[in-house]
Amino acid sequence: MNTKALLCAAAAAALLAAAFAPRAASGSPASPASDTPRYERALPTAEVLIDAGHGGIDGGAHYGSVLEKDINLKVAKRLYLVLRSQGIPAVLNRTGDYALSDENRWHPSRSRHQRDLSQRRGLTDEIAVQLLVSLHVNWSRRPSASGPLVLHQEEGRSALLAAFLQDALNREYGSRRLPRVGKPYYLLNLVKRPAVIVELGFLSSPADRAKLTDPRWQQRLAEAVAAGIRQYLWTAG
Fold this sequence. Notes:
Blueprint: H1 3-20, E1 48-52, E2 62-63, E3 66-67, H2 68-85, E4 90-92, H3 112-126, E5 131-138, E6 149-152, H4 156-173, E7 180-181, H5 186-190, E8 195-202, H6 206-212, H7 215-236
Parallel strand pairs: 1-4, 1-5, 5-8, 6-7
Antiparallel strand pairs: 2-3, 6-8
Helix pairs in contact: 2-7, 4-7
């Protein structure tokens, strides 16, 4: 290698060394900690986790072509927008027609239903939220059964949230139902923060079904649920 080539190689090496050398601030030596990459939390944080019940292969209750999973998602999306517009951060656990069990690669169970439920519960551990509101539609063999029903944990904060939600929904329906403890429900038993299941109405009731499938009523239901959540947050802090 001739002298000119050696000088060029030396200059290139010096430039590379300067480019990758630790930089000191204000003439003082840089500490190793200052060069350590900082990673912020990748998962979202919010006040409310909105659980849109069912999805994908699991249609939930149905009446002909009317499927519970579709009603749940439509109201959930509206609720998300209402809460965000009121300055209440919210997270929606599904935004389309798919089963959450498909995202569960950590639960060894062969049961799709168990993987679905454990995925919903697992999100409350992974995402920093204050409460869980699970939206569903009810069904009964009795056509006379109608109106909203809120199920809660056997715990004070959950019961308070359920009371506010039930009152707001009763006002929309003109009903006088009381919330109930939902002892056999997986989510209510295993979620470690205040959680409720909101049955928005009975798909088996002709009167309720007309409301549940009406976009204007879906908006009213979303606003009622948001009002209950807002009242709870104001009260419980």
